[in-house]
Amino acid sequence: MSEIKQVIVVRSDLGMGKGKIAAQVAHAALDAADTARRKHPTWYDSWREQGQAKVVVKTDGGEEALEELQKQARSLGLPVSLIQDRGLTQLEPGTTTCLGIGPGPSGEIDKVTGKLKLL
Amino acid sequence: MSEIKQVIVVRSDLGMGKGKIAAQVAHAALDAADTARRKHPTWYDSWREQGQAKVVVKTDGGEEALEELQKQARSLGLPVSLIQDRGLTQLEPGTTTCLGIGPGPSGEIDKVTGKLKLL
């Protein structure tokens, strides 16, 4: 099995604090992993065996950028999870904060997120 | 069912960047949630239905503090996951970075982490 990883893309334009970012990223990671576990169990199992690699990157392109990345990832058959904040603190309710992609084959995910910088 | 939440405790003494913190917290969240899904499925299901609340807090007490919190959480029967970094970037291999507790009943988790400050 090739390298399996998960990438989480965070909006850098919202000014979220590091605790807020961590909670939103965890939410995306868990949701996307749950989808993978159900729809792509071999990816999920390999990812867990390999140490569940996660990479956190950023975009300054706002909600539109996350939606475009989601569309690209879906078209490649990758599990995705777009996270909206419940808005109890810091942000307006329904604000899109981050996008989880994978676990899935590293090369496929790189087609979507390969140009984004690390958070 | 009472309120179910997950708390992730992060070491604040390591000087981790926000992307590093987010990845480590996601790791802890996923591992502890996976344990809950297998051992406490009613907690896990309720947590997911309630919106999978996550709270990220910090300790400056180093590895010893995380281990003590882990012991307390275990003694209450809560799912826990203590995360060690693989040390490929930023940290020495095997450095303990954070502790995931729950999902579990909010009141039980507060007995362990109620005095810790938000990250």
Average pLDDT value of chain A?
95
Question: What's the total helix number of chain A?
Answer: 4
Portion in strands of chain A: 25-35%
Largest interface: A-B, 25 and 25 residues
**Bulk shape of chain A:** globular
Strand and helix layout:
Two copies of one chain form a homodimer.
Chain A: E1 4-11, H1 18-39, H2 41-49, E2 54-59, H3 62-75, E3 80-84, E4 96-105, H4 106-113, E5 117-118
Parallel strand pairs in A: 1-2
Antiparallel strand pairs in A: 1-4, 2-5, 3-4
Helix pairs in contact in A: 1-2
State the main characteristics.
homodimer, alpha+beta, five-stranded mixed sheet, 5 strands
Characterize the structure shown.
The structure is a homodimer of 119-residue chains. With 119 residues, chain A is of the alpha+beta class. Chain A has one domain: Bit1. In chain A, 45% of the residues lie in helices and 26% in strands. Chain A contains four helices and five strands; from the N terminus they run βααβαββαβ. The first copy, chain A, has a five-stranded mixed sheet with strand order 3-4-1-2-5, sandwiched between helices. Chain A starts with a strand and ends with a strand. The model of chain A has no long low-confidence stretch (mean pLDDT 95). At the A-B interface, helix 1 and strand 2 of A face helix 1 and strand 2 of B.
